[in-house]
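[job 4471] stage=fold_predict status=RUNNING
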Amino acid sequence: MSAAFAERIQNGFYDSMIAQAKSMEESCLAFADYKHHFFPEADWGSATRYVTPQKKVFHTNIFGEVCGSGDGTQISAKGNHFVGTTENPNYITDTTRVKDTIVLRAPTDAPEALVQIFEDQIGTLNQIRQADADQEADEFTQYTVKEWIKSPAPGETQNMIVITSPPRYSVEDNPGNTSTVPRIEKRTHDGNVKAPPPVPVEDKGHRSCAFPLAFRIGALYDPSILPDYKGDLFKHRRAKLVQHDVRDEEGRLVPPWEIYSALRPGTVVLIMVTLHCYIMGADNIKKRKVCCGASYSIRVLMA
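[job 4471] inference complete, writing structure tokens
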């Protein structure tokens, strides 16, 4: 056991996680029951979303430890975008929906009680899938299904949860309101520099940012600020980098260019998601069901 994981046990972090998860009751996915706390509802096209008994969008909380790229996590300027081949490249343009993929596992060296709660989250997702499978059998329909969960290797138990981020880039409605890499401010004649604008009230600022930016959810930045935004793959003309609701242990917004380290493998997070299922393809042979846990907000619990 590494020192970092041992500390989580010694300082009571895992015990506090157990208590927190239980206190959340059905707002934690582990304690929510399908067709009791949430139900399927037809969305646009042939998609399905999940709603509360009051017909409001079902938001639920999922916790876990971030896996590495070998297990499917994809956090980068290109996200989970398929880049194509050398002969037929699939460029990222203003209309491309680039999203990250975050794969979660049970926290390392966690006590059995916490592992059980993590696995109960998977159990709830399996409730949905089993109900769908029963309906498909009754209707004699077949799908290739991409689930919310995955296994670390073929043939092994599906004990990981797959989360998808909102689109990384967006085309702004009003190009005049962009938050971007700051320009040099003109000095006054007495040599003083104009005071930077105050940080918006939605956030307390960020310790590792060396210049004042408008840190707020939905703020837009120049994509080139990302360290791996380079090469011919990116063909953006108007698209900007979006500030999502990702917060560190102190509750401060994490700017997109620091997501790489903030959500590095081994980090324990709490993610609020909405659940969706999309049907693709025109006939039974090619039909696919894609189950998606869409991230609404992310909070780092332990780096």
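[job 4471] summary: The domain at 3-89+97-169+244-302 is CATH 2.40.50.140 (OB fold (Dihydrolipoamide Acetyltransferase, E2P)).
[job 4471] exit 0
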